[in-house]
Structure formats: structure tokens, C-alpha cells
Amino acid sequence: MRQDDSGPTGRTGVMGRTRGVVFFAILSCSHPAYPAVPAYPAPQISVEQAIRDLSSPDANVRFRTAQMLKEAVYPEAAEPLVPLISDPQDEVQLEAIAAELNIFLAEKIVPRRRIGRVIEVRNAVMAEPLFSTGPLAIGSRPVPAAVLTALRGASRDDNRRVGLEALYAFGVLAVEPGGTARRDLLRITGPDVAALIGAVDPALRYAAIRVLGRVFSKRSDDPPIDPVVGDAIVGALNDRDNAVKRAAMQALGDLRHDRAVQALTELFQFHAKGPLAEASLDALARIAHPGSGPLFIDVLATKTATLKGIAIEGLARLGDTLQLPAIEKALAEERSDPTRLAGRFAAAMLAKASIDPIAEALTRPKLRDQAKQYLIELAPGRTSALAPLLQDPTARVRIDAVDAIALGGDASAISVVEPLSRDADPQVARAAERALARLRQTVTQLTR
Predict the structure, then answer these.
(1) N or C: which end of the chain has fewer CB within 10 A?
(2) Other CB atoms closer than 10 Å to residue 157's CB: what's the count?
């Protein structure tokens, strides 16, 4: 609303509650780095009074109340906070957006904390870093449609910072709905957010493409991609900003938009090497259109390990078992660990080989994200193979396994995941609760 733009927030390139009384103190933290000492004495305000204060004609009162609710993480405040997302005051809008995010995050952010009694540490609730952590940033609590509608509307705010915060916050929270609610969300969201790809500001174009890629990331029961969305992202492949181009390539892979295959192929052939070549080939590998098979086979002969690994992934997703010998030959003298891990993925996909080597890579920081993505793709129908990871002594491995099962969407895994909702490690337990909510959504969709 009112202009107070302190600079770009996009990048070019991640409860306290009682019944009847809200304690505006910091009660919990997902990764406690310091003793849990409140930054200030904790004032007590009734929930009813807090909600009334959200409608105060005094902007300072609205601001302080939104800030308090952000810290208290009171879930029933989600809908009463909605009008503040379009408040006339920018600062109030930003606090309301942050409060909405913190209500639904899997790991709540503690905005204020003291080290001993002297130094206060402030942790901002910012949408883009949360968005960058991935689709499992939010917990199992349903997000009201009114919250998503308000955030999507605020993405067009005349204050650049507010618009970007609202757009990324929408991207964080809009992955929650499933079934009919998701189909309605996609129908409404597509044309609205796709129009932002034509914005003058490259940060807004970049954000819009990333958010569309996240929200429209292909699920098994999704309707065909709205051509308005797909064509707008394909058009962004010609953007003058290379970061926007790479975001468009990433999004097209997320959408598995086969109408983009020709344009992506031409871009790969034009660039041949470098970041844009890698990004365009990666998009083709994730779309996995049969017409890309010959290109992937040709790329197996390259000396560039990254491109070779991407081509192997593409062939694995195409499911042609006849290509396994060619993949093995291409890997015979390969020393790159990521490329060799891609070979393990291909063996698991094409020859039902053990996923143990991929699971072991979860403990290697440089390979962890790659291994986790492979496990997500391998998880459906292979719950029994992932079960040992759920008993791993390392909490991080248990979390990764639960997340892979959740994103894999195999509803038959519910009984395997349920015991982890009582895990001794609270982060594992929360990951299991989040996974169960997502898997139960899948069951509901299948029974309709």
C-alpha cells in the first residue's frame, strides 16, 4: 500500500497458545541455539481482545497486535488476520503476512530471544527463504482459502516489498490444499499469477515463475496444465534476465509441461554447455517426453559429468530398460559421485535394483539433496524398501525418509509412518504428522 520500499526482497539465483489467553511470549523454537529466556516480560491479552484490536482504527495497535500474534502463533487468528494483509499501512501488511506464515510453518520461528540477560537475537519471518526450503516448509494444519486469496491479491500491492512477500508467502502455503480445493485453487491461481510474468520488475517475474512451478508441480490427479500458465512460462524462456530463464526452465520441469519440449531442446542445442544448457536439459529430463530419448542417449557420450548425469536421469524416467547397458557403459570410467549416484537411480528405476546406495547418500552432505529427490521418485510402491530408514538412529535420515514418502504420495505408507508421529525426536514427530496429513489427503482423493 503506502510506499516504503527498502529494497528488493527477491533473489536472482528456504506455540504458544492457551484456551482463552494468548501469551505473547516466545514459547518454543525448532532449532534452539540459546536458552529459552523470554526477551521481555510476557504480557497477557485475551484472545477476544487481540482479535478486536486487529480492527482498530489505530495503525500502531494493528501493527502491535499482528506482531504479537506472529510471536504467539495462535492458529485461530489466521482468518481474523486476513484483512490486515491488504491494510493501508505497509508495515502492518508485512507483520500480518509474517504472522500467517508462522501459524502454518512446520517449524515455528521465534522472532525474539535473549542470550542470557543481555543480547537479544531477532529472527525474521521472511517468505522467500521459507519458500526456498521446499514444499514441506508448512505443517499439517489446513490453510483457509481466505488466507490464500488475500496473499494472492496482495502480490499486486503497489509496494514492491509487500508484493514480493505476499507472493512468496502464497507459494509457501498454497501447496497444502488437495482434492477439489486444489483443483479450484489451480483454476483461479493460474491466470492471476501468470500475468505477473509480464511485470517490468525482474524480481517479480522471477518470483511469479518460481511460485507457479511450486504450486502447479505435477501431482497424479491434477488436471492438464492451463495453457495460460504453461505458455506464459515458455515465453519466459526468452527473458533477457538469465535468472528468470533458469527459473522458467525449472518450473517447466516441475509442471512436466510437454508443450515446452521443443523450445527446451532448441535452447539446449544452442547453449550446449554451461548453466543454461544444464537447466534446459534438466527440465527435459524431468518432463521425460519419449521424444527426448535420442537426445539423452547422445548426451551420454559427453565428457561433462553434470550433463551426463542429467541424461541418465532422463533415461531412467523414460523407463526404457533397453537403455540400461548404454548407461552402464557411460559410467564405466566415471569418477563424479553425483553422476554415479544418477546411475544408481537408473538401476533402481529400470532394473528394480536396491535403493540402499541411494539411502546411504543421505548421510553425505554434498549428495543429500540429490539422493532425497531420487527417493521421492522411488517411494511409490517401495515403502517396504524405505522402512529401514525410518528406524535409522540418525534423526535427519528418519526425517528425510518420511519426507520422501510424503512427497511420493503413496497412501499405503500411512501405517508405516504412523509410529513416527510418536518419535522421541520432536522434529521427526512433526515431519511424520505432516506426512500423514498429506497421505490422508491422497486417500480422500482416491475414495471420491
Answers:
(1) C
(2) 19
Question: Of 112, 213, 224, 100, which Cα lies nearest the Cα of 151?
Answer: 100
User: Would strands 44-46 and 21-23 be described as parallel, antiparallel, or unpaired?
Assistant: antiparallel
Residue found under cell 523470554: 38
**Backbone dihedral angles phi then psi of residue 46, each to the nearest 5 degrees:** -65, 150
Residue 400 belongs to some domain of the structure: no
In terms of residue numbers, what domain contains 30?
21-128
Torsions phi, psi for 44 (to 5 deg): -115, 130
Instruction: Output the nine-digit C-alpha cell for 275.
Output: 548453466
8-state DSSP, 46: E
Cell of 126: 521472511
Strand pairing partners for 44?
Answer: 23
How far apart, in Å, are the Cα atoms of 348 and each of 174, 374, 375?
A: 32, 10, 10
Q: Longest Cα pair distance anywhere in the chain, in angstroms?
A: 72
Residue whose entry in the numeric block shows the C-alpha cell 496444465: 225
Q: What's the full length of the chain, in residues?
A: 448
Contact between 405 and 383 (Cβ < 8 Å) = yes
Q: Classify residue 399: in a domain, yes or no.
A: no
C-alpha cell at 66: 499482528
> Is 51 within a domain?
yes
Give the count of domains, the chain.
1
**Block residue for cell numbers 485461530:** 76
63 found inside a domain: yes
Question: In angstroms, rounded to a whole number, what is the distance separating the alpha carbons of residues 374 and 127?
Answer: 27
First to last CA, the chain: 42
Q: Read off the CATH number of the domain in which 67 is found.
A: 1.25.10.10
Rounded to whole angstroms, the Cα distance separating 415 from 411 reads 9
Distances (CA, A) of 239 to 168, 205, 266: 21, 9, 15
Closest by alpha carbon to 153, among 84, 217, 103? 84
Write down the pLDDT at residue 10: 35
| pLDDT attached to residue 263 | 98
Q: Which three cell numbers stand for residue 445?
A: 482423493
Cα separation, 88 vs 84, whole angstroms: 8
CA 368, 336, 346 angle in degrees (round to 5)? 70
Per-residue 3-state assignment (H helix, E strand, C coil) for 316-377: HHHCCHHHHHHHHHHCCCCCCHHHHHHHHHHHHHHHCCCCHHHHHHHHCCCCHHHHHHHHHH
Grid cell 548425469 is found at 309
d(CA 290, CA 264): 14
Do 417 and 439 form a contact (C-beta atoms < 8 A)?
yes
- The pTM score is 0.84
What's the CA gap between 236 and 199, in Å, rounded? 11
